[in-house]
Every structure is written in C-alpha cells, then in structure tokens.
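Researcher: I've got a protein sequence and the SMILES for fe (ii) ion. Could you write out the 3D structure of the bound complex as structure tokens? I'd like something to compare against our soaking experiments later this week.
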Amino acid sequence: MLPPHREHIDFGPTPYDKLQSKEDIPVIRGNFVDDVMKVELGPWKRMGALGCYLNLADQQDTDAYVCEILPGSQTAPQRHLFEEIIYIVRGQGATSVWHESMPKLTFEWGPGAAFAVPLNASYQHFNGSRDEPVRFFAGTTCPRVLNMFHNEDFIFRNPFEFRERFQATQEFLQYSNHMGARYWETNLIQEVNRFVLDDFPMKGKGVKHMRFTLADTSYGCHIAEYPPGSRSTFHRHGPGAVIIITQGEGYVTLWRDGEQRSQHNFRVGSIYSPGDLMWHGHFNTGHGIMRHFAIRGTSPKYSHDRFRNPMYQMIPMEEESPEIHREFAQELARKGVKAEISVVED
Ligand SMILES: [Fe+2]
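Model: Sure. Here is the predicted complex with fe (ii) ion in place.
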C-alpha cells in the first residue's frame, strides 16, 4: 500500500520559485493546457525570446516551458546544469551546440523534431524563416537541480564540460542505436509522428511504444501510439511527467483519492501533467491513431526503474467505476468510432 499523497507544506519560496519570480514571464499552473499555440507568452530575457513557464501538477521536480522565436531572430546563447528535452511545435530553424574547447555543431529541424540539449553545453536556437515564428515546448529538470544546489552561478555559469556526452561531429547527429525492443538511443528525432515505433503486444493489439535516451541524458522521454477506439487503464505514480499530444484526439481523466474526477478533451498541441499519486488514464476517441510525446522519468540507458517502479499503481479495469466505461462507450458512439481494445500505459 502506498502512502497517501502529502499536501504541500509552505516554507516559503524555493530557489526555483525565486528564479521564476526574477524572470517574470507568465507561469501556467494546473494539470492541463488546451493548446500550446494559444498560451500567453512574455519577453524572456535569459532566453532572448518570448516564453512562459508550464509549472504543472504543483510539483518541484521537473518543469516545462513554451518559447517563441520571432521571424529572422534567435535565442540568446546559454548553458545550464539541468537537462532539457525539446519538441518543435511550429517553424523551421537550427540549433548550434558547443563547448568552449571545441567547434560548434549546428543542426536543422522542423515541426515534430525532438532533441535534448547536451548537459551544460552552450546552445543557441535560430529561426530559419523571415516570415514565420518558431514555437517549441521543452521539459527540464531545472527545479530538481536548482533546488538541490540552490546557487544560480553554479547552475548557469559553470564551465565544466561533459565531453563524453557531446562531440561536434556528424556522427553525433547520425548516431542511432536500437538498444532493444522499445528502447532507442539517438541525438535527434527528425519527426515524432513518423518515427517507427515497436509493437507493445502485452499492452494490446496495435499499441506501439519507444523510450529514448537523447544526448546521453538521464532525463527520459517516450513516444506512445494508441490505435483507434483504445484507452489506457488508470494508473498513478510520482510527479514530473509532461505529455504533449502530437497526433489524434481524445481525453484524459485525472483525480486523487477522495477528489472529484476531472476530464479534459485533448487534441494536437494539448499538454497535461498528472500530479503526485494522481490517477490518470488516456482515451483515444478519434478515428485515427493517437500519439503522444511524454517527457518523464529516467532514460533507458540510465534507468534505475528497470523493474516495476514501486511508486506505480494500476486499477484493473474490472474494478473501475462503471461510469468510466459508459462515458468512453458513449463518446465513441457519438463519434462513430468502434471500441477496439484496452491498453495499459506506463
Ligand atoms: Fe502515467
């Protein structure tokens, strides 16, 4: 039996809270963002672009942000001792990455690309268009790392070079290693919706999945694909997952023990984050497949939870409230989608 979710105890602002206050850009809280393209952004001095924090699920482990680079513009160069995984929502551009002791490596990207910033490498993003803005979404381990060391100089102005994690070569960009079923190591995903995933038959017919190690990060991410008419079971775990829908439509249902369920309809560009020990389940109600890109947990190469995470709990479908099944069946019927199978999400 897991301990109950602990309510927040307020000892004043954390080092991460202080960074957020100082940067003075919009902060979005809660568990759900309807559309990454419609969030309010403000001038972000550190980034040299527009941005907002997505400080979802009332936690201080990971965070996310949305950034927009105006046409013909670029972000300010920076480096930091927290890990960061980026998903390009809109626009065409390029990123330069370097250590002071080596040349720059520049690579191009477009909508749907995903990559990690190598730890503490300097980097700068460029909008390659003079007409269209670039908008990207990123998950980071900033709260965890900044709260641990609580010294911004150490985090943002540290000269240490993790040379084993990054080399300024074409081989670095082209590196691709299928580590095993549903595990992949690479440094650049060209397009999340076109990446060929592995079948995950134990989770149901048509379910596909891939977990990634990007740029040797220990921060994890995965792509999951749900066939039409399918859903996950309800499960819960620790905080920190942020999920963006990259294809399809449906809804997510969330609640904590003793609280009302909340349901959010999602579509491409919706983002959500279940809180600590918050039950959650994903439902595909569209006519096509549903894909999401989740930034969470540890990467397969550095995973410490190779076996079932002790914080993980799942509700068998036969123990769910009948309302859950009824609501899903009604929504599928309303849209004329055939209920196929049930699947489990990790
Ligand atoms: Fe989950």
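Model: The mean pLDDT is 93. The radius of gyration is 20 Å.
Researcher: Great, I'll pass this along to the crystallography team.
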